[in-house]
Batch of 2 targets.
Target 1
Amino acid sequence: MADEAQTATKSKVEKIDVSMEDGTTVQFNKKQKLVKTSTISDAGDIALRLDFSNGAVRNFSLPIGSPLYARFAAHGAEQKLGDAIAGESDMGDAVLAVDDLIGRLNNGEWTVTRAAGSFSGTSILIQALVEVSGKSVEDIKAFLADKSQAEKLALRRSDKLRPTIEKLEADKASKSKNQVDTDALLGDLGIGGAPAKKAKATAE
C-alpha cells in the first residue's frame, strides 16, 4: 500500500503558489518559469498575460487592427503546424501528421490530443494497404482515421500485410542516403566470407 501511495504522489505534478506583484496568486510547476494566459475578445482583440515565477507580471495587447496582427497569426500557425511532427522520425509519417492537423484545423478543431510519434509507421502501412487492397490512398486514409496506434501496429504485423510491409521497408532502406554497408563493416572482422583487414605492423 505504501508503494502505491508513493506512486500516486509522484504521478501528481507538484504546484507552488506564488504571490504576484498585482496581488493575485498563480500556481507554478516546480521547474516552471513562466505562465502564459491569453484571452480573445468577441471583436478579435488579443490580451496576453505573462506571470513569472519571481512574482513579476507583464501584459501585452494585440488589437485586431494592429499592423503586426497578421505576423503574429502567421507565427502561431507556423508553430502549431511545426509542432505536429514532434516524435515522427520518418518524413512520410511527419507529412501525414501535418495533413491530419490541417484537416482538423479546417474543421475548427484547435485542441487536438495526440501522442508524439502516433503516426509512426503509418505512411508505410498506407502504401501496403493500397497495394494489397487496390483502394485509393484517400480511401485508406479514411479507413485509418479512427484507428488507434495499437490497431495500426496490429495491421502492420498481420500475416496478410507483413510481407508487403517488409518489402516496402526494404525498398525504402535501399534508397536511403544514409544506408550503411554492413557487409563491409562485418568484413573487417572476417564475418560473412570477406577477409579481415590485417593490422599494420608497428615498429619496435
Target 2
Amino acid sequence: MTARGRTTSVLVTTVGAGDRSRRSDRLVVEEPLQLRLDGHLVATTMRTPGHDYELAAGFCFTEGLLAGAPVRTVRYCALGPASETDFNVVEVGSGGAPVPTPRLGTTTSSCGLCGAASIEALQARLAPLAAPVPLDAGVLASVADRVQSSQQLFAATGSAHAAAAFDPVTGEVSLVREDIGRHNAVDKVVGRLVLDGGLPATGRGLFVSGRASFEIVQKAWAAGFGLVAAVSGPSALAVETARAANLALVGFLRRGSMNVYAP
C-alpha cells in the first residue's frame, strides 16, 4: 500500500537476544488535513487518511462551529481537483453557520484542537445532560473486547487509536473508527452520526482506546453521549468537565474492572 493509504511499509532492523535481522514493518500514515467551512479555513490537523468527510463534519460539530446549522455538503478541495492537494483539503458546506475564526498552526496527532478554552465556555453553549447512563463493568468490558477485534489498523501497526459508539445496556457496538489521533477517531465517529442524522447520541456510550482528555469529554458532551469509557485514565480537567456535563466517565477499563470518575 502506498503512503496515500492508511499504512505504508519500511525496512527495520530487529535486535534481540544477540540476534539481528532485517524485515518489513507496517507503519500508520500521518498526513495533514486542512478543514474548511463554507469557504473559510478552519484548521489543519494531522490525521490518518480515511473517513475524511466524517472527520471534517465531526470536527465542525463538536467544536460548535456549525452553531445549529446543518451539514449540507462535504467534499474534497472546493478550490480545484482534489488530486492536486493529495486529497488533504476537505470543505464542509452548511449554508448558515457563522464565519469561523481560523485555528492557526498545525495540530499534531497527540493533541486536540480545542475551541473551548474552559468549562465555562462549554456551559455557555451546552446544557448538562438529563441523566448519565447506567454503568455495568461486565458490559463495558465486552465493549472493549468487541472494539479491539475491529481495530484492523492497530493490529497492522500497533500505532492507532480507536473510538466507538455503543449501547451501554447491551454492549452492542454500532460504529468503530481508527486514527493516529484519539480526537480524530472521536470526530470520525461523531461525523458519521452527523451525516446519518444520528445526533444527539442520547443514551449511548463513547469508547476510546486511550486516555480520556478534556477534548474527548467535551466532544462527547457536544454530541450528547451519556458515557465516556476509556482504557486509560482521565485528566483532572476531563473529570471536572464530565461532572459539569452530568456525563458518566469511566477510566482504566480493563478485565472487568474500572474506575468511575463522574458524575
